[in-house]
Structure formats: structure tokens, C-alpha cells
Design brief:
Strand content: 25-35%
Mean pLDDT: 94
Helix content: 25-40%
Number of helices: 9
Order of helices and strands: HHHEHEHEHEHEHEEEEHEEE
Number of domains: 1
Largest sheet: 8 strands, mixed
Number of strands: 12
Structural class: alpha/beta
Distance between the termini: 41 Å
Low-confidence stretches: none
């Protein structure tokens, strides 16, 4: 359980470390309006790999009811301190979601796996296990949206050497890969204030691999966007360019396309 170990040891400083990630701008200003194009209306949202709850405020502020789950009890403790009983929090490995115990009547209207959750799925079959659980949790015409890191991002953050941007404010992030290739497994070492040195393990997933896994799990891919930042703005563009964009944004639906 490398992700659980890493994030349990990272939980107390996670919000400070990721303070530059503006979820109101990203989720509230970009992703949710894009999902509106597919007819999505506020209802129940399942935030898988919710961490400290960075996505909760944009959702709650737009009328969503939220269930968050995470494999890290340390991250969930931070989320509970901030949100109390405004959300329901569940300790769960994303690969083994128990739909019967967490789903509201009719299932969730939306499932989220944001900020690299899918890239921490490194073993054969992991992606299908997660997406099968998502399928079981979604209601008819429910939508799942998630991001995956591109080759460009892996070169920037997991290629051999110190990542200057991620190493700001007293922490050090060192990529350990000597080569970045399609479908590769990568490691980076994080250390610094209030963090014991730890290794983060991630896998590059190609768009074809993602679409094939979605299809096998009964989820219909709708669109894959490339995401990048320009002039302090988040840009979504299709088709994805792995050498230009930092993330791929995947949107899929259960039960066929919306009208």
C-alpha cells in the first residue's frame, strides 16, 4: 500500500504543499461547467481519493451532496477537521469500493478521481478494479471524470533531478527516473519540513488503455481533453497532446450518452 503509507505521512502538510492548486478555479470554474454540457445536474457526488477535501468546497457551494473516500486515514482526519458533518467520509481503498454501503438511493450522479489518483494505480488490473467499482456506484447516466498525468508531466516531475516548482516552500521533490517512456512506472522522493522521506510510485496510462478499461467496465468514454495552463488560466483542448499538455481529462458515462 505505497500510496497509503506516503499520504499518511504527508497529511499534516498536504494542504500547504498543494496550496497553489486552485480547486475553485479548476473544478468549479472549468470541470463542472464542462460536465454541464453533458446535462449533469447537482446531486450526489463521490470523491474517490478525496484526500483532505480540496474538492469539497466547490461541490458544496454548487448544491452537491458529497461522499468522500480515501485509503489514507491521515488525509481523512484532516478532511474531517475541516468539514465535520457537512460531508460523509469513508475509509476505503479505491480498488475495493463497497457500493452497497456507500451509495445513496439511485446511485451517484457523479464520481471524481482527481489530482493523480489514477496514476497511483500501478499494478495490472488495478484500473479495471477501480472503474468497476465506479460503475457499481453510479446511477443511470452517471458521469465519471478523472485526470491522468501525461508524458510531459512525468518528464517534468519524475524525470531524474529536482523539480524546482514542486520543491518550493521548504520541501524537496526529486524525480528518480532516468528515462520516461509510454506506459512506464516512475518514482519520486519527497522530503522536507514535517515529512519523513518517502517515495511516490506512479504509472503512465495511455488514453487507449484508459478507454479500453472504461469499455470493459461498462462505462462509455465521452471525451478526453488535454489540460494545460497558459497565462494563469486552465485550458482544456482536444485532441490531447501528451508532449504539450500536463494532464489528460477523461469523461465517461454509465448507460449511454446524454441528450
Amino acid at each position: 500500500m505505497p500510496a497509503q503509507i506516503a499520504y499518511d505521512g504527508f497529511a499534516s502538510v498536504y494542504d500547504a504543499f498543494t496550496s497553489a492548486n486552485n480547486y475553485e478555479m479548476w473544478l468549479g470554474g472549468v470541470l463542472l461547467p464542462e460536465l454541464d454540457r453533458w446535462g449533469l445536474q447537482p446531486g450526489w457526488a463521490l470523491d474517490i481519493g478525496c484526500g483532505t477535501g480540496r474538492a469539497f468546497d466547490p461541490l458544496l457551494g454548487r448544491g452537491w451532496k458529497v461522499v468522500g473516500c480515501d485509503v489514507s486515514t491521515g488525509m481523512l482526519s484532516q478532511a474531517e477537521e475541516k468539514f465535520g458533518d457537512r460531508v460523509q467520509l469513508i475509509h476505503s481503498d479505491a480498488r475495493f469500493l463497497d457500493a452497497e454501503s456507500i451509495c445513496p438511493s439511485g446511485g451517484f450522479q457523479m464520481a471524481l478521481l482527481l489530482n493523480g489518483v489514477v496514476n497511483y494505480l500501478t499494478e495490472a488490473g488495478d484500473l479495471e478494479r477501480v472503474l468497476s467499482g465506479v460503475f457499481n456506484c453510479l446511477g443511470h447516466n452517471g458521469i465519471v471524470v478523472f485526470d491522468t498525468n501525461t508524458l510531459h508531466l512525468f518528464r517534468e516531475s519524475f524525470g531524474s533531478g529536482r523539480d524546482e516548482e514542486m520543491s518550493a516552500r521548504g520541501w524537496e521533490w526529486h524525480g528518480l527516473a532516468t528515462e520516461v517512456v509510454v506506459g512506464g512506472l516512475y518514482e519520486a522522493r519527497l522530503s522536507g519540513k514535517h515529512v519523513e522521506p518517502q517515495i511516490h510510485h506512479q504509472r503512465h496510462w495511455t488514453p487507449d488503455q484508459v478507454d479500453e478499461a472504461l469499455d470493459r467496465c461498462g462505462l462509455q468514454p465521452l471525451v478526453t481533453y488535454g489540460q494545460r495552463e497558459e497565462n494563469w488560466q486552465i485550458i482544456l483542448d482536444a485532441p490531447l497532446d501528451e508532449e504539450r499538455d500536463s494532464r489528460a481529462i477523461h469523461i465517461a458515462v454509465k448507460g449511454g450518452p446524454r441528450g
